[in-house]
Specification:
8 helices, alpha+beta, single chain, five-stranded antiparallel sheet, binds zinc ion, 16% strand
Length: 415
């Protein structure tokens, strides 16, 4: 931004303070864009990542207004996966050795003449990872529809989990609420094949949230049992297509303990890492796709192109308008939030931001950019002009060092 802010005495009209961007480097004031996506702005994504880390961590060990006693509450780290939509190239390791991708002695040949076997030991940067052995057999529609319905599947999972946990303890859901509440924090992660899965922290509290301990009978083991049951039980249907979706059979449930193999730092860091990523790590586009875009000319690999094409095709079916697949085609159908939490999990991103803004305001008063007045006793006149979007040359170098890729400005000039 380029411009100035003047503070006048309301009674005398006297100029009390003037700030102008003229004295700033390059004559512009850099304002944070506040994106969470590392591909758009590494600096702002880092702030978002750190906030998410603190938010998740506070729910595990306390702090930021959450009592430390929360660390004694039973807590699980759960990964819910998507089902298979066809065989894809994978890299698996065992005892430090890379295994063959899909070694099948009696491999079938698909109707398109493709032998459903791959004996390669793929390197970690092989672009074929996550791509189907036969694209013509692959269920692209299923993949994008699962992404579209996954927020609903998650919602139903949380309801089923409460129901099951109540039942295991011989209670109704209503009666359970008088003794126990279940708190969640979760992130979505794109797998290489282009479907989302969810990593979640699931914690047992007493009836008043993190301030209250859960009763002794509300154990991590019972919670884990309820998670297993709820994961297998829930479904979500896309009625116009008569398609029913459920979670994949790969479910990972681990206990979070302060000194165990899965520590609270590891979990918070893991969740925060995914909070700044989006679908671009699958090789799709980092922008919305317009209806007039020529899909054949998008700079993406064939797998991503087919996923995007499935979104555009299904999205134009009248019965599926609610899924907004065209709008979210660049996200391969997923329109949910990347990181979400239940109300009483811990603090909020808003509270963390407000605390930071208060801190920065105090700092800017010491630098003289802001005057030390009560806002309502003075008249503030501001003139601002948009100068452009991007990073300064120094910030670009820093961004490249953080991300490991050369960073170029997008959508505008850095001046
Ligand atoms: Zn930014
Ligand atoms: Zn392979
Ligand atoms: Zn095939």
């Amino acid at each position: 931004m380029r411009g100035k802010v003047e503070h006048y005495d309301r009674v005398t009209g006297q100029l009390l303070h003037r700030y102008s961007t003229i004295r700033e480097p390059d004559g512009v004031l850099r304002v944070a864009c506040k994106t969470r996506r590392a591909s758009r702005c590494p600096a702002c994504a880092e702030v978002y990542r750190a906030d998410t880390y603190q938010l998740v961590r506070a729910g595990l060990v306390g702090g930021k207004g959450v009592p430390e006693t929360v660390s004694a509450h039973p807590c699980l780290f759960v990964t819910l996966t998507a089902p298979s939509f066809g065989a894809v190239h994978v890299r698996r390791e065992k005892n430090g050795k890379v295994l063959p991708c899909h070694a099948r002695r009696d491999a079938q040949t698909c109707p398109h003449g493709q032998v459903m076997s791959c004996t390669e030991r793929h390197s970690a940067d092989d672009p074929r990872l996550g791509e189907p052995l036969c694209p013509d057999c692959y269920d692209y529609d299923g993949s994008v529809l699962f992404n579209a319905i996954s927020p609903e599947l998650w919602r139903r999972f949380t309801l089923a989990l409460r129901r099951r946990f109540a039942k295991l303890n011989g209670l109704t859901v209503k009666a359970l609420r008088e003794h126990v509440s279940i708190a969640f924090a979760k992130v979505a992660e794109y797998q290489r094949r282009g479907v989302v899965h969810f990593h979640a922290v699931i914690r047992l509290d007493g009836p008043d949230g993190p301030e209250s301990p859960p009763p002794a009978w509300a154990t991590a083991d019972a919670l884990a049992q309820a998670v297993q049951h709820a994961t297998a039980a829930v479904t979500a249907e896309i009625k116009p297509l008569s398609r029913t979706f459920r979670w994949g059979t790969q479910l990972d449930v681990r206990r979070i303990t302060l000194d165990g193999e899965l520590t609270e730092q590891a979990v918070a860091a893991y969740i925060a890492k995914y909070a700044t990523k989006a679908a671009e790590c699958v090789g799709t586009l980092d922008r919305r796709i317009q209806p007039l875009d020529d899909l054949n000319r998008l700079p993406v690999r064939e797998h991503a192109r087919r996923l995007i094409a499935a979104c555009m095709r299904l999205g134009s079916q009248p019965g599926l308008a609610d899924l907004r697949l065209i709008h979210w085609a660049h996200m391969l159908g997923f329109r949910g939030h990347f990181s979400t939490k239940s109300r009483r999990y811990s603090t909020t991103l808003g509270a963390l931001r407000a605390a930071r803004e208060e801190h920065m305001r105090a700092e800017e008063i010491t630098t003289g950019r802001l005057p030390l007045f009560e806002e309502d006793t003075v008249l503030v006149i501001a003139h601002w002009q948009y100068a452009g979007q991007g990073l300064s040359p120094g910030e670009q170098l820093l961004a490249a060092a953080i991300t490991g890729v050369p960073f170029s400005n997008v959508g505008g000039d850095s001046r």
